[in-house]
Amino acid sequence: MISIRLFMLLIKASLRSRMQYKFNFVFSTIMASFIQISEFLMVALVMMKFGNIKGWTLYEVGYLYGVIMISKAIYRTLASDVHHLEKYLVSGDLDAILIRPVPVLVALMTQNSRIQFAEIGQGLILLIISMNALQANGQIGWIAIPQTGFMILTGAVILFAIGLATAAAGFWLTRIEFLQNMTEDASHTAARYPLSIYPKWLQGALLVLVPVGFVNYIPTLYVLRHQGGVELLFGTLAVSLAVLGLAMYFWKLGLSRYQSTGS
Questions:
Q1: Host domain of residue 212
Q2: DSSP annotation string for the chain
Q3: In this predicted structure, what is the pLDDT of residue 71?
Q4: pLDDT given at position 100
Q5: Which of 30, 96, 130, 260 counts the highest number of beta carbons within 10 A?
Q6: What is the pLDDT of residue 162?
Q7: Domains in the chain: how many in total?
């Protein structure tokens, strides 16, 4: 509980410092909005032309896209610099965090926090549009709303765990940008679309090695397509807790082996 209170206080302080540069905040939010919406519009144009992707409609893909967009935005808002651990390792700035009277991970997570309004807002818009259309077709009911909230929260935990485990690899590799390109950037992009469109080996990788498929695809099979039963939601929760536990263990192991740059 003490760590949670410290975390919230440090997050608020970091956000206040970011808001001092209002023009930069507004400009970066607008640019992020253009980038995110342009990516989905390209997919939407293709789907409007051909109708669906292996049986998945535009609104179903929009739902997948919205869920992972919000989950990722929550993760990056609450743990921004976990993704940027490499710069702390290379510059030696992690040494300054180590001597603070707070847990290292809490201190790192609250560095340079920024609420990703653009990503959260666009994800919500996509979800609202997609879910309204799916509800009008009788595919989902009101129960899909709390189920979607559950998916977003467990998805944020899974993405954080993947990011934390990748960052922890930096204690051995130092340079981890290439690894993050695979475990975070590429996998997040792949998970925006139904895993059924990929070959079997890639589906396995996205469910086992880098389990982003549990962020949206697996629970969506139950929420939208009523496949597999409610066990898919409980399974998603179990996976999120398991990967978080493994990531925390890997982080503590790596931190115990950290050696300062000596600068």
A1: 2-256
A2: -HHHHHHHHHHHHHHHHHHTSHHHHHHHHHHHHHHHHHHHHHHHHHHHHH-EETTEEHHHHHHHHHHHHHHHHHHHHHSGGGTTHHHHHHHSTHHHHHTSSS-HHHHHHTTT----HHHHHHHHHHHHHHHHHHHHTTS--TTHHHHHHHHHHHHHHHHHHHHHHHHHTHHHHS--HHHHIIIIIIHHHHTTS-GGGS-HHHHHIIIIIS-GGGTTHHHHHHHTT--S-THHHHHHHHHHHHHHHHHHHHHHHHHHT------
A3: 95
A4: 79
A5: 130
A6: 96
A7: 1
Q: Which residues, including other chains, have CB under 8 Å from residue 73's CB and lie 6 or more apart?
A: 116, 119, 120, 123
Mean pLDDT by 10 residues, the chain (263 residues): 58 58 58 61 64 84 92 89 89 86 83 77 87 93 95 96 95 90 90 91 94 96 93 96 97 89 57
For 3-35, what is each residue's pLDDT tens digit?
566 556 655 655 565 556 565 655 565 665 566
Domain presence at residue 223: yes
| 262 domain-assigned | no
Q: Residue 56: beta bridge partners?
A: 53
Helix axes 58-78, 117-136, angle to 10 degrees: 150
Q: How many CB atoms lie within 10 A of CB 121?
A: 17
Residue 238 confidence (pLDDT): 97
In a domain, 127, yes or no: yes
Residue 122 CB neighbours (<10 A)? 22
